[in-house]
From TrEMBL:
Residues 90-228 form the PA14 domain. PROSITE patterns: PA14. This is PA14 domain protein. It holds the Pfam family CHB_HEX_C_1. It comes from the Bacteria. NCBIfam families: barrel_OmpL47. InterPro entries: GH29D-like_dom (IPR059177), Ig-like_OmpL47-like (IPR058094), PA14/GLEYA (IPR037524), PA14_dom (IPR011658).
Length: 536
């Protein structure tokens, strides 16, 4: 049909010609395995498509209807070779033009019907833009109450095709104005799929009707099966079904066919955090709260079937545990016992792992089961792991246990020009010149613990006025120590070293200086800061 005919000119045809194109299809029932969209009650599920006014029309070479043989005799709907020569652009039922879907209880043109026999526009729910150019695909699953022949009537303006069980039953192409055809179809008892395609391509007239006219005619089977919703959780998985990050929640629903092999389509999906207050799902959402969050979800189809509420608990712990030692690192004069304590307010503590050799602990390291004995100098490193798999930072405590012996290695006495030394055993001080001096060390155990804790240093026969300072070096020589090695010193102890002068000493007070002391433990490592009282 040319565009001029399309917009106004109508061509009528003799009744004989209309009867010549009448098709009566006798079908042996073959139920389509593809589930059909179904109405919530008895009705047809219609998908509506809006076409632009400038969409190419179907006819070339002024073909005018009624016209047969434009589409193949079986679904899916597609053109024949003849149809390809007549139709410019057969994409009327593409998703790009889809506007909405709804259930049409009746499409017979009677009061209350979704369709009209004449002037069928505007479409309820209003197609946008140019509503006169549109297409509809109705589908339903019919139940034939008995095996036999069923009569029907279909009328349309412009183009319509009727398929039952996937086979073409009636084709009304290029009809202007609306014309009616009566037909019949043989159906076995039970379900049968019906598909009706209608296209309106003009601005002057539109109409469509379809109905069964036989008593006890087939009626659409309602959808009574609820949809099924699946949930997808996207986050960083930890241990024991915990997540250690925010979790993105995605819901997807399908309206699957039940025993009736019909679907009405998903109307909406809902979710809730309490199972009472529901929100319509519009896209992925994020759960960020730590702890356990329950997400409830369900879907409702267009037939009103409500899915049984589903739920999933999302456990999130993004915070590492905390861990501490009850004994801080430092220098001690006796072995220590250390207790480790960890806490985690979300998933709970799985364990504490530690090492005593200055290596970094892992979950393969010794697991803490009780207080740790520190009998000797050690570097304790430890960390905690929660049940979600989060690990605390590694903590380090360095313990110096000074149970070894202290001793004096050497001594120098300085005067105005002469160096004074003592031998390694500190049995005396020898002056390099002809002058002599004697140093006496007296050790005492004042608290009766078996270790000397007081030393008295006496310098005898010293030359008056020569000694600006006396320096005692205390360090490890790697050999058997002398008696002062029994002295016990720790960070909380003080060692009083007194320089005692003989009654005959003539050293003047202005020449008396403090004694500088440098301590080392047996392995040569500095033990830390110590305070010592020096008396002159």
């Amino acid at each position: 049909m040319s565009s001029s005919v399309k917009t106004g000119r109508r061509r009528r045809f003799p009744l004989a010609l209309l009867m010549a194109i009448f098709m009566v299809a006798t079908l042996i029932m073959v139920v389509d395995s593809v589930p059909v969209q179904a109405a919530p009650t008895t009705g047809y599920y219609g998908t509506y498509y809006n076409l632009p006014r400038n969409h190419p029309d179907m006819e070339q070479n002024d073909h005018n209807g009624p016209y047969q043989g434009l589409v193949e005799s079986t679904l899916p709907l597609r053109l024949t070779a003849l149809g390809s020569t007549c139709i410019h652009q057969f994409d009327w039922y593409d998703d790009q033009y889809k506007v909405f879907s709804r259930v049409d209880t009746k499409i017979d043109g009677s009061p209350g019907s979704a369709t009209k026999a004449s002037k069928w526009w505007p479409i309820p729910n209003q197609l946008p833009g140019d509503p006169q150019y549109f297409a509809v695909h109705w589908e339903a699953m019919l139940n034939a109450p008995a095996t036999g022949t069923y009569n029907f009537q279909m009328g349309s303006d412009d183009d319509s095709w009727l398929f039952i069980d996937g086979n073409l039953v009636l084709e009304l192409g290029n009809i202007h104005p609306i014309q009616y055809t009566n037909g019949s179809v043989y159906l076995t008892k039970g379900p049968h799929r019906i598909d009706i395609f209608f296209a309106e391509r003009h601005t002057v007239e539109s109409g469509f009707v379809f109905k069964f006219t036989s008593p006890n005619a087939p009626v659409p089977i309602p959808d009574v099966t609820p949809p099924v919703t699946t949930i997808t959780l996207n986050g960083t998985a930890g241990n024991n079904s915990w997540y250690v990050s925010d979790v993105q929640v995605t819901l997807s629903a399908q309206d699957l066919p039940g025993p009736e092999n019909v679907v009405s389509g998903v109307d909406r999906t809902e979710y809730s955090f309490d199972g009472v207050n529901w929100s319509t799902y519009g896209g992925p959402f994020t759960v960020a709260n730590e702890g356990s969050t329950t997400v409830y979800y369900r879907s409702i189809d267009k037939a009103g079937n409500v899915e049984a509420t589903r739920e999933v608990a999302i456990q999130i712990d993004k915070t590492p545990p905390s861990v501490s030692a009850d004994v801080p690192g430092g220098s001690y004069s006796s072995p220590r016992t250390v207790t480790l304590t960890a806490s985690d307010d979300v998933s709970g503590v799985e364990g504490i792992y530690y090492t005593l050799d200055n290596t970094t602990p892992t979950t393969s390291s010794p697991k803490y089961t009780g207080p740790i004995d520190i009998p000797a100098s050690s570097v304790l490193k430890f960390m905690a792991v929660d049940n979600a798999g989060n690990q605390s930072p590694v903590s380090t405590e360095t313990y110096v246990i000074m149970t070894g012996k202290w001793y004096i290695y050497a001594s120098k006495q300085k005067d105005t020009g002469n160096d004074w030394t003592c031998n390694q055993n500190f049995t005396g001080v020898t002056q390099l010149s002809s002058d002599t001096a004697q140093t006496v060390i007296t050790l005492s155990d004042t608290n009766a613990d078996g270790k000397k804790d007081r030393a008295e240093v006496t310098v005898k026969n010293a030359f008056p006025g020569y000694y600006n300072s006396i320096v005692l070096d205390v360090q490890n020589i790697g050999t058997t120590p002398i008696s002062m090695g029994q002295v016990k010193i720790s960070g909380n102890d003080s060692l009083t070293i007194r320089l005692l002068e003989s009654s005959s000493s003539t050293i003047q007070p202005k020449y008396r200086k403090a004694i500088g002391i440098d301590f080392r433990v047996n392995d040569g490592t500095p033990p830390g800061d110590y305070s010592f009282t020096v008396s002159l």
